[in-house]
Amino acid sequence: EIHILTNKESINYSVGKSEFTEKSQLQLRDYFWHNKILEFKNESLEGVFVELENKFNVSIDYPTELVKCRFSSRFHAASAEDIIKQVCLLYQLNYSKKSNYFKISGVPNC
């Protein structure tokens, strides 16, 4: 099987199935390990929090009302707490932190 990748494309290979499983466009945040840039474009806050949990190895608890909120921003060399702080300021929320666990509270303004 032949796959030709162009600039900013990736492909996954499943060893167990001995097949290629997914071809997709890379986003800027896929290079986070290298350039320390996280960029969100009209992303659901749920998606933002999942991304932060994966990139920074943290857990985030948040009100279910936040899933309807959208977020766009770009961060360079920011910590999970820096990004959560910005989200909370934007949506008039509060957060607390204990080790690698964040709890976001309040009624979102979105």
Q: What would your notes on this structure say?
A:
The protein has 110 residues and is an alpha+beta fold. It is built from three helices and seven strands, in the order E-E-H-E-H-E-E-H-E-E. The chain is globular and about 45 Å long. 15% of the residues are buried.
What attributes does this structure have?
110 residues, alpha+beta, 3-stranded mixed β-sheet, globular
What's the gist of this structure?
This protein is α+β, with helices and mostly antiparallel strands.
- Estimate the strand proportion: 35-45%
Helix content: 25-40%
Oligomer: single chain
Gyration radius from CA atoms, angstroms: 17 Å
Shape: globular
- What separation lies between the terminal Cα atoms? 47 Å
Compile the SSE list and pairings.
Layout (H helix, E strand, L loop, with lengths): L8 E6 L4 E7 L6 H4 L1 E8 H12 L2 E3 L8 E7 L3 H12 L2 E5 L2 E5 L5
Parallel strand pairs: 4-7
Antiparallel strand pairs: 1-2, 3-5, 6-7
